[in-house]
Every structure is written in structure tokens, then in C-alpha cells.
Write a structure and sequence with these properties.
The complex is a heterodimer. Chain A is of the alpha+beta class. Chain A is built from 12 helices and 23 strands. In chain A, α1 packs parallel to α5. The longest helix of chain A is centred in the N-terminal third of the chain and has 20 residues. By secondary structure, chain B is α/β, with parallel strands linked by helices. In chain B, the strands form 7 sheets. In chain B, strands 1, 2, 5, 6, 7, 8 and 19 form a 7-stranded mixed β-sheet that branches. In chain B, strands 10-17-11-12-13 form a 5-stranded parallel β-sheet. A 5-stranded mixed β-sheet of chain B has the order 22-20-27-24-25, with no helix packed on it. In chain B, α1 runs parallel beside α6 and α3 packs parallel to α4. Chain B starts with a strand and ends with a strand. Chains A and B meet through α7, β19, α9 and α12 of A and β7, β8, α3 and β14 of B. The complex binds flavin-adenine dinucleotide (2 copies).
């Protein structure tokens, strides 16, 4: 049996890994040059506790369940999570009423440990928040992670367990026979398949339409962010939300897993033909700046290192759309993965494989006896003790050559990232955090370009930032 | 390992400091994370270095070479470790050094910190738009072209008309990249008039004053840059946008002293954003001295060298027991953007660096009871004066002012 997953975001990657536990052939097809570069690359990186999804929604079914699975998952796949906890802050009576509603909703959604805290408790834990705060909803299970790393780790582990990964391949069509998909057509090849799982993020509706299945229309909702220097990383120790409105969870202040401070996102609905629009806008960035100062006054904007935008795939129902197609019997849609899709993803992956494929579609899948659930992350030498590091350098001198000074990444880590599949500057960046720090590659980008050149045996002019035409340098200036 | 002096960074400042300390008979270790000594000089292949110090005009690499040779005259006293990054410096005077030859702790009596500066990255400007390839800081562009021998693009726009930006405009032109303009948000060029003529006018490169980049566009490689005029508060004026079709944007918008390694160990100066130093080069932590661009951004390498020598000299005297006690704060006053050093220790005359706040035709510099008239002042050009010790006697605060006349 051949099961193909379309889209190597956090959702598709985790589904693919889940499938690799069984005795089937698994294909993962991704149009980008690397995994985790769709919606998964630019979001708030929060493991939501699960109190703000309406009771009875599909979101509520998977959010707190997915959240609790992350502890085990991060252990197996060796990516970082931090249970920072989160606060929703209320500044007036109306907002306090909303907190009470959220608390009730959270309890119905099986969110553990929710508490209402008074001003003094909040300020003792988070002394930098606006002292005008009146009350806060504390959710201890909320946390943060590195979303693309979840996808990378899942895919690396799946590859160990037999996954066939096709990068830089865009699904453009399907061949049908007797109401089933028999072949996936990409811009480069055709793949015969028995089952298709559509986890194509923002573009899942278009693929579903092509396949002739039911779907919900998706439009992008833009979220703009400002990332600040590590120096400000300890401004808050948990995730600080405003009281949510009908439309969104609002603009937040939160620590990032590598010690920075993240502000955002905005929420701007765009028409469905703007799914590639990841540009930031001056209105958006100004909105973030203005808003966060109400939550945490005194943020120093001279410490900005980067701004970026992400797009949530939003549907009119504002809910996940996860189901086997009625019209095309071997097609499963996992779409409209708006927030909290990252949090929910592990639970969704399990549900798709165990409930949809096995129960609903009746596929007979048998567990492999030799599935290895463990993956090791790239060793971070700067985290070792002096003795251990010294020993590592004796064996591999590259482990003693610092390449990225801001985030303390050695040449050995970059070489390892390339060995694991990085082919681009962003590939190295998202696997190692090199170029992610306060100088944004000012010192190390040119060195990394050379390492890529050497390790891949390619001329530097063939090395790109993130996509086939995102070249960095051209020919030589002197012969 | 043990040493008397650990010099962190072997740019112009670090090399000069090491030599000064060795001349005083101390054992010195210089750690440099690059494969070669010289720091930023190695990538500056234009000339304009050394006019004050050597009384001749050298290129950056030539200037670095001269100091490399001097360093090698002290092989008994100075050990230079290249490809060696100082990762940590602890309160107990132990540093952690990381290199392909090993990871080890080094105990020292004094540190001379000369780690230079880093460039402000594109992201810090909060320019809206896409995030394509083809956006470089000047230093990265310079390194790619001058050291790695790579062409960075075909048509470029430059942001920032400081000397570095203008020099890059000329370099790119000479290397076959068409430069369509230099954008500057100030109403006057940020760098020297000499560079405006030699780097821009001579090559017909337009300079757009009171202008800034308001958006970058390009899904993969950069395609367009939108530039608009700004008002006196640097706010873009709607309706004045111009589109430049370029595949390359080079940013030259300032250097930031590199100080993070000493976080928590020393005080910083709020204006320079560098390590606060006394006129001896001593920081607020008495065994840490600092010099060069990690203290304040200097215009000329000659100044950096002198500051390195000074730090090396006083650090040596500190090692053999001398203490510099009286530190009088130096504070910028009227029309002064920043001053360096940040305090004065009365062991010698004061060499004072001053950056003015705005262009002025003529102004009187006042420091204690010292006064001198300067002409044609611009913020990008530092004033350097030697203020005699006697003029600073008895002060417990030294205010530096520039009164326009
Ligand atoms: C601003 C913002 C903030 C968010 N904050 C959070 C949060 O804090 N916590 C949380 O839990 N969730 C959050 N989310 C939601 C979360 O990011 C998403 O739910 C999740 O990343 C969706 O993953 P995915 O795998 O479905 O999509 P994607 O990551 O987009 O993966 C789909 C993949 O399919 C590929 N693809 C598309 N079309 C094709 C094709 N034709 N052929 C081949 N490949 C194709 C794409 O290139 C992409 O890599 C946020 C989202 C946004 C935008
Ligand atoms: C593009 C450009 C053009 C210039 N043009 C001119 C000109 O025409 N004329 C002129 O006189 N001046 C010019 N200057 C100014 C002058 O070159 C610099 O001010 C001077 O070289 C700075 O010296 P430095 O030693 O302070 O810093 P750097 O040269 O930056 O040296 C710092 C060194 O420290 C090392 N280092 C940092 N941290 C560590 C660590 N933790 N461990 C080990 N090593 C470390 C770095 O690798 C670097 O080699 C120019 C500067 C630039 C950037």
C-alpha cells in the first residue's frame, strides 16, 4: 500500500511520521526546497493550552490533546519545548467577564490547571507587564517551541523509518479511476498511490478542488511580527495575551525558545488570491508596536532584529476541516489549519491515521516491529561541558570552529545540517539557528555560503537563500 | 593556561594594544576568531588608512600588514591565536577559548577587549515588504566582493551615505555592478565631501537626500525598492515614492559596538552603546580595559590604533600595581552628540573625541577651562583634541559643549 501525504508542514510531517509506524510505503511531497517552510515557518510558536477554542469545535477536540502530546514527542524527536505558561490579561470589568468565560470553556475543553490570578500575583510573576492589569487567566500547560523544527525532526525520524521524501515537487493534478485517485501528478513526476492525504496548508483547498473532493474555501489572514534581541528575552517569562476578541487572540508578547522576544501577530484578512503575500506593512508593524506597549510598557524598539509575516489558512467556519472525502474514497483532507494547528498537529496526526484511515476507511494497517521512534537533534557543542567539548574537538576539529557568534553555532553543526538535507542558506539557518541572532548573518553568512559550496560541491552562484531563484551571489569579480 | 594580558580581538585596536603591553615586558595572548589578524581592515581594499599614524595613505590590508609585522617582532612576548573565539569571560578572570585546536580555559591578570563592532542588520530598520535574497549589509557585500571575489548583483541601490556607503558605491561600480543611487535620510551627505566627489560625482551616481527606503519587493531575489522623501522628522511623505528596479540593496546604516560578551561585567555608555571607558581605557571593572570600535565607533583607524596603544599601556601599568583612582565623568552638553572617553583619569592629558549633533560652520568647543574654535563641523567627522591636564584640574564633572558662533 502506498500512502502519499501532500505538504511537509508540521501537520503533513507528523502524519507522515505516524504512518511510518506501519507497514506501508509513505510518500511526502513538498513543493518547497525544504520542510516546514509554509505556514509552519512563521507563526507565534505557541503550544496553546486550549481554553479559547469554542466547546464542541474541531479545534477544541485536538488542542489540549495535542498540547499534552508534545512532552513525549519532544523527548522522542529531540526538539525543544518550554512550558512557560500563559496569561490572558484583563484591564477592565468587561475583560474580566471574558476571563471567566474562558475559564469555563477551558474546563469543558479539559485544559488542566487553569487559574484566575489577581493583580499582585501577576505582577510578582511578570513584573514588566502593565501595572494597570486587573486580573489574569493563568494556563500552566501553555508553552513555546520551534515550529519548523517539529517538522524537520518528524521528517528526519520518518526518513529513518522508510519515508520517501520529494522536495521541490509541486502537486499539480490527480489521475482518477472509478472515483479514486490512482496517481498524483507533480511538476516533475507522477506517483502511483493508494491513498492521498492533503495537508497542503494554504493551498489545500485548491488541491481538494482539483481532486474533486469537498473542501472549505481558504483565504489568508496575515499576521505580522517583530522579533527583538536576546537582551530583551527575559522581559517576560510567560506568554502574555490580551483579552481575546471575536476576531483573534490579539497581539502578544512572548519569549522565543532561543531567548529572544517576539511581538505580534496582527490579523488582517486578505483575499484568497494573496496566498503568497508574506510582506510586512508599515501599518501592521506600527500596530504591533502600539499594541504591545499596552501589555508590556517600555519595550525598547532599538533592539529589533527582524520583522516578518505569516499567513493563517482561514475558512468561513473558522475551524479545522479534517475528514475523508465522501466523493473520492481514498482522499483525506486535513485543511483550514489556522491557530492552534501547530499545537493540535500531533493529535491530528494520530487521529488521521488511527481513526480516519483505519476505522473510517477500513484500511488494514499493521504496526512495524522495527519502528524507531527516536531521533537525535544536531549536537550543540556550546551546551557541552568544557571537558566534553574538548573531547569532541579532538575527534572533530570543526566542532571548535565558531561560525555563528551570536547563537554559538560551530562549523561541525553546519556540516551536520547539510548532511541532514540543508541545501540552502535558510536550510542551514532553520536547522542550526546560525544567522538567526542579533547580527542576522552579518558575520557568518559569507562563511556559511562557503561551507555549503564546499560540502555540496557546488559553485556559490548555485546556492540560494530559500527558493530556486533566490540567488545570493553571481559570478566572480576577478578571474 | 595563564597569561598577564589577554587581548580579545586582533583588529587595529587589539594589535596595537598587544604591542604596547609587550613593550612593557608583559606576557600577552591575543585571541582572534578570524583566520587572520587585521579585523575589518582586511576587507577595506580602498585607500585612506594611516594618514595620521604613518603619514602616508595605505589600503586597509596594507595597514593591517604593517601591524602584523610589528606583532611578529614580539614572538617571545606575544602569542597570537587565530581561528580562536573567546566565548566567555568570567568574573574570576578566566576566559573560555574555543578553536579547532581545542577548547580551553585561560587565566589572565588583565583583559584588553577589542572586539570591534557589528553592522546594524536590515531587520532592525523595520522596512516593510518582502524578504527576498539580494539585501546585504555593506560589510557582508564588501567581504563577498573583496575577500571571496564574488559579484553580489547586477543593479544596486545603496542606503546610507556615510563614508562606507559611498565607498561601496564606487567599489560596486568598479566591480561591474551598476549603482543606481545612494539614498540618505539626512538633508546632507553623511560622509566626507571628499568621498561625495571621489565616489559618487566622479562615477555619476546620484545621491538622494532626505529620502528613505519605504518598501522592498521581490518574492525570491530582490526586484524593486521603493524610496520616498522624508520630512524633518524622517517620516516618509506620501505621494513622493519612486521605484528602483534593482536586484541588490546594500545597507550602510551604522555600526554597533560589540559588547555582549561583557554583559553584566562592565557598564556601557548609553550614547555610544559601547563599553564605557576612562581616559586610560579602563572599564568599570578594573581589570578589563577596552579599545576601538567596541567602545565607540571611530572614523579613522589611526584613532583606533592610538586608543589600542593607550589601553595596552595602562593595562600594563595596572598589572604591575598602578591604580587609576580619580575618574571624572565626561558628559556631552550643548550640540554634542557623543564624547569619548566617558570619564577622565588625571594621569595624563585628555585625548577627547567629540561628535557634533548637526552641521555647523563654526563653533567653540569648551571642555573645562579649555576652549578651541572649530570650523565646518559635520556629525560624521569626529573632532579630536588633546586637552591639557591643567585645564581639567579640580573638576568633578567635565561637560563638553559646542557653542555655535
Ligand atoms: C500568524 C500565525 C500565528 C499562528 N500561531 C500559532 C500558534 O501560536 N500556535 C499554534 O498552535 N498554531 C499557530 N498557528 C497555526 C499554525 O502555524 C498552523 O496551523 C500550522 O503551521 C499549519 O501547518 P500545516 O502543515 O497545515 O501547513 P503548512 O506549514 O503550510 O504546510 C503545508 C505545506 O504544503 C506545501 N504545499 C502546498 N501546496 C502544495 C502542492 N501543490 N504541492 C506540494 N506541496 C504543497 C506547502 O509548501 C507547505 O510546506 C499560527 C499561524 C499563523 C499564520
Ligand atoms: C567599511 C569600512 C571602511 C572604513 N574605511 C576607513 C578608511 O578609509 N580610513 C580609516 O582610517 N578607517 C576606516 N574605517 C574604520 C577603521 O577601519 C575601523 O574603525 C578599525 O579598523 C576598527 O578596528 P577595531 O580593532 O576596533 O575593530 P575590528 O577591526 O572590527 O576588529 C575586531 C576584531 O575582534 C575579533 N573578535 C571579536 N570578538 C571576538 C571574540 N569573542 N573572540 C575572538 N575574536 C573576536 C574580530 O574577529 C575582529 O577581527 C573603515 C571601517 C569600515 C567598516
Amino acid at each position: 500500500m502506498r500512502i502519499a501525504v501532500i505538504g511537509a508542514g508540521v501537520v503533513g510531517s507528523l502524519i507522515a511520521r505516524e504512518l511510518c509506524k506501519y507497514d506501508v510505503e509513505v510518500l511526502l511531497i513538498e513543493k518547497n526546497l525544504d520542510v516546514g517552510w509554509g505556514v509552519t515557518k512563521a507563526n507565534s510558536a505557541i503550544l496553546h493550552a486550549g481554553y479559547d477554542d469554542p466547546v464542541g469545535s474541531v479545534r477544541s477536540k485536538f488542542c489540549s490533546a495535542g498540547n499534552s502530546m508534545y512532552t513525549e514527542l519532544s523527548r522522542e524527536l529531540d526538539f525543544e519545548i518550554k512550558r512557560t505558561g500563559s496569561y490572558v490579561l484583563a484591564f477592565n470589568d468587561e475583560e474580566i467577564a471574558v476571563l471567566h468565560k474562558l475559564l469555563k470553556q477551558g474546563e469543558k475543553n479539559n485544559v488542566p490547571g487553569l487559574e484566575l490570578h489577581d493583580r499582585d500575583t501577576i505582577l510578582s510573576k511578570e513584573p514588566r507587564v502593565n501595572p494597570e492589569v486587573k486580573m489574569g487567566l493563568w494556563a500552566p500547560t501553555a508553552g513555546i517551541t520551534e515550529p519548523w523544527m517539529v517538522a524537520i525532526a518528524a521528517v528526519e525520524n520518518a526518513l529513518e523509518n522508510g519515508l520517501k521524501l520529494f522536495l521541490n515537487e509541486e502537486v499539480v493534478d490527480f489521475e482518477r479511476q472509478n472515483g479514486r485517485i490512482v496517481e498524483i501528478v507533480t511538476n516533475r513526476a507522477k506517483h502511483r498511490v493508494d491513498v492521498v492525504i492533503n495537508a497542503a496548508g494554504l493551498f489545500a483547498d485548491e488541491l481538494a478542488k482539483r481532486a474533486g473532493t469537498e473542501f472549505v474555501p481558504l483565504h489568508p489572514r496575515k499576521g505580522e511580527y517583530i522579533l527583538l534581541d536576546k537582551k530583551l528575552g527575559s522581559t517576560v517569562s510567560s506568554i502574555i495575551f490580551p483579552t481575546p476578541t471575536e476576531k483573534s487572540k490579539g497581539i502578544l508578547v512572548l519569549p522565543t525558545i532561543d531567548g529572544g522576544l517576539l511581538l505580534g501577530p496582527t490579523a488582517e484578512d486578505l483575499p484568497s488570491d494573496r496566498k503568497h503575500d508574506l510582506s510586512t506593512t508599515s501599518q501592521g508593524l506600527e500596530a504591533v508596536k502600539g499594541f504591545v506597549l499596552k501589555l508590556v510598557p517600555g519595550i525598547d524598539f532599538s533592539m529589533v532584529v527582524k520583522t516578518f509575516a505569516g499567513l493563517r489558512p482561514e475558512s468561513p467556519q473558522k475551524d479545522f476541516f479534517i475528514r475523508a472525502s465522501d466523493s473520492v474514497r481514498n482522499f483525506v483532507n486535513v485543511m483550514a489549519m489556522r491557530s492552534p494547528g501547530l499545537t493540535a498537529a500531533p493529535a491530528i496526526a494520530k487521529y488521521v491515521v488511527e481513526e480516519i484511515l483505519q476505522q473510517q476507511l477500513g484500511l488494514k494497517l499493521s504496526l512495524k516491529s522495527d519502528f524507531n521512534p527516536l531521533r537525535k537533534g544536531i549536537k550543540k557543542y556550546a551546551e557541552l561541558s568544557v571537558e566534553e567539548w574538548q573531547k569532541a574537538v579532538k575527534e572533530n576539529p570543526a566542532a571548535g570552529r565558531m561560525v555563528c557568534f551570536c547563537n554559538e553555532v560551530t562549523e561541525a553543526e553546519i556540516i551536520e545540517a547539510i548532511r541532514r538535507g540543508a541545501r540552502t542558506l535558510d536550510g542551514v539557518k532553520f536547522r542550526t539557528r546560525a544567522m538567526f541572532g542579533r547580527c542576522q548573518g552579518g558575520f557568518c553568512m559569507s562563511r556559511i555560503l562557503k561551507i555549503l559550496e564546499r560540502q555540496l560541491g557546488l559553485d556559490a552562484s548555485k546556492i540560494v537563500l530559500k527558493s530556486p531563484n533566490s540567488w545570493i551571489v553571481d559570478g566572480k569579480v576577478r578571474e | 593556561m595563564k597569561t598577564d594580558v589577554l587581548v580579545i580581538g586582533a583588529g587595529a585596536a587589539g594589535m596595537a594594544a598587544a604591542i604596547a603591553a609587550a613593550k612593557n615586558g608583559l606576557k600577552v595572548i591575543v585571541a582572534e576568531r578570524d583566520e587572520v589578524t587585521g579585523g575589518i581592515l582586511n576587507q577595506c581594499i580602498h585607500n585612506g588608512f594611516g594618514l595620521h599614524y604613518f603619514k602616508e595613505e595605505l589600503t586597509g590590508p596594507e595597514y593591517a600588514e604593517r601591524f602584523r609585522e610589528r606583532l611578529s617582532e614580539y614572538t617571545d612576548a606575544i602569542q597570537v591565536l587565530t581561528d580562536c573565539h573567546v566565548l566567555k569571560l568570567n568574573r574570576d578572570k578566566k576566559a573560555l577559548l574555543v578553536s579547532p585546536r581545542g577548547v580551553f580555559e585561560l587565566e589572565t591578570k588583565v583583559v584588553i577587549y577589542a572586539a570591534g563592532a557589528r553592522e546594524r542588520p536590515f531587520g532592525s530598520l523595520m522596512i516593510p515588504g518582502d524578504r527576498p535574497s539580494g539585501i546585504f549589509t555593506a560589510g557582508v557585500a564588501q567581504r563577498l566582493m573583496n575577500i571571496d571575489n564574488r559579484k553580489i548583483g547586477n543593479r544596486a541601490l545603496i542606503v546610507g551615505s556615510g563614508d562606507i556607503g559611498m565607498i561601496m558605491a564606487r567599489r560596486l561600480t568598479l566591480e561591474g555592478t551598476e549603482v543606481v543611487g545612494v539614498v540618505e535620510r539626512l538633508p546632507y551627505p553623511g560622509g566626507l565631501l571628499r568621498n561625495v566627489i571621489q565616489c559618487l560625482k566622479d562615477f555619476d551616481i546620484p545621491l538622494y537626500l532626505s529620502s528613505t527606503v519605504v518598501e522592498v519587493r521581490g518574492k525570491e531575489r530582490l526586484e524593486e525598492v521603493v524610496v520616498a522623501n522624508v520630512d524633518e522628522h524622517f517620516k516618509p511623505i506620501p505621494g513622493t515614492e519612486k521605484i528602483f528596479k534593482v536586484d541588490t540593496l546594500v545597507l550602510s546604516v551604522g555600526l554597533i559596538p560589540q559588547v555582549e560578551m561583557l554583559d553584566g561585567l562592565v557598564s556601557l555608555d548609553a550614547r555610544t552603546r559601547g563599553i564605557a571607558c576612562s581616559s586610560t581605557g579602563q572599564s568599570s571593572c578594573e581589570w578589563i580595559f577596552a579599545a576601538g570600535n567596541c567602545t565607540a565607533i571611530f572614523d579613522l583607524v589611526d584613532y583606533v590604533t592610538r586608543e589600542g596603544e593607550r589601553a595596552g599601556e595602562y593595562a600594563s601599568r595596572y598589572v604591575v600595581g598602578e591604580r587609576f583612582t580619580r575618574n571624572v565623568p565626561i558628559v556631552p552638553g550643548e550640540n554634542v552628540m557623543l564624547t569619548f572617553p566617558n570619564s577622565y583619569s588625571d594621569v595624563d592629558d585628555l585625548t577627547l573625541y567629540v561628535r557634533c549633533r548637526k552641521p555647523m560652520e563654526k563653533a567653540v568647543l569648551k571642555v573645562g577651562s579649555f576652549e578651541r574654535v572649530f570650523e565646518d563641523l559635520i556629525p560624521s567627522e569626529m573632532i579630536v583634541v588633546r586637552v591639557p591636564k591643567q585645564k581639567l584640574m579640580g573638576l568633578d564633572r567635565i561637560e563638553v559643549t559646542l557653542a555655535e558662533v
